Automatic annotation (TrEMBL):
SUPFAM superfamilies in the record: Class I glutamine amidotransferase-like
Cited function: Catalyzes the hydrolysis of glutamine to glutamate and ammonia as part of the biosynthesis of pyridoxal 5'-phosphate. The resulting ammonia molecule is channeled to the active site of PdxS.
Subunit structure: In the presence of PdxS, forms a dodecamer of heterodimers. Only shows activity in the heterodimer.
Protein name: Pyridoxal 5'-phosphate synthase subunit PdxT
Gene name in the database record: pdxT
KW ATP-binding (keyword) present: no
GO CC terms of this entry: cytosol; glutaminase complex
Domain of life the protein comes from: Bacteria
Active site residues per record: C79 (nucleophile), H170 (charge relay system), E172 (charge relay system)
Length: 194
């Protein structure tokens, strides 16, 4: 059994739980730090990154999440979740968890495009991944070890660095759960070799 957590401090938690469902996956809604010990992989949902960060501090999650990330257990951040993972945030002095080498710009698609849908080719997944963007960030640049998985009109919107997976959009809001399946595979592989 593979145990995957969804950080449930704020944001679209329930949708991720549904998208992760698979016969041999046990999904844990993570509300307490102790639960991190029970899981092999973790999802940071979308929502509002500054609110999530405030709650991370308030509930004592900051150091435990840094340790979780350093333990080689996979993390998948969507939208605000990706912002939490970035080493740099445009216009902000400090990043949040700073675990994945990328620079993100919040709300980068502009007002006219606050929310939109696109079909994107994504490396390792397919050429028709359904992506819903809601006040989404753009990944402006990535480090040498980061593989770009998808772009939208030239901007990076999905990337992977080893056991870290991040995307600007909300794969949990569609019926297309291939990106979650891809993450489940990452967790399974990390788990097998651990
Ligand atoms: N704009 C939000 C932020 O900066 C992210 C939006 C989302 O997760 N849908 O945190």
């Amino acid at each position: 059994m593979t145990n995957i957590g969804v950080l449930a401090l704020q944001g679209a938690v329930r949708e991720h739980v549904v998208a992760l469902e698979a016969p041999d996956v046990n999904i844990i809604v993570v509300k307490k730090v102790e639960q991190l010990a029970e899981i092999d992989g973790l999802v940071f949902p979308g929502g509002e990154s500054t609110t999530m960060r405030r709650l991370i501090n308030q509930y004592g999650f900051y150091e435990p999440l840094k340790e979780f990330a350093a333990s080689d257990k996979p993390i998948f951040g969507t939208c605000a979740g990706a912002i939490l993972m970035a080493t740099e945030i445009v216009g902000q002095d400090e990043p949040h968890l700073s675990v994945m080498e990328m620079t993100v710009e919040r709300n980068a698609f502009g007002r006219q495009r606050e929310s939109f849908e696109a079909i994107l080719p994504m490396k390792g997944i397919g050429d028709d991944v359904q992506a819903i963007f809601i006040r989404a960030p753009i990944i402006r640049s990535v480090g040498d070890q980061v593989e770009v998985l998808a772009t939208y009109e030239g901007d990076i919107v999905a990337a992977r660095e080893g056991h870290f997976l991040a995307c600007s959009f909300h794969p949990e809001l569609t019926e297309d759960h291939r990106m979650h399946q891809y993450f489940v595979e990452m967790v399974r592989n990390a788990f097998v070799t651990a």
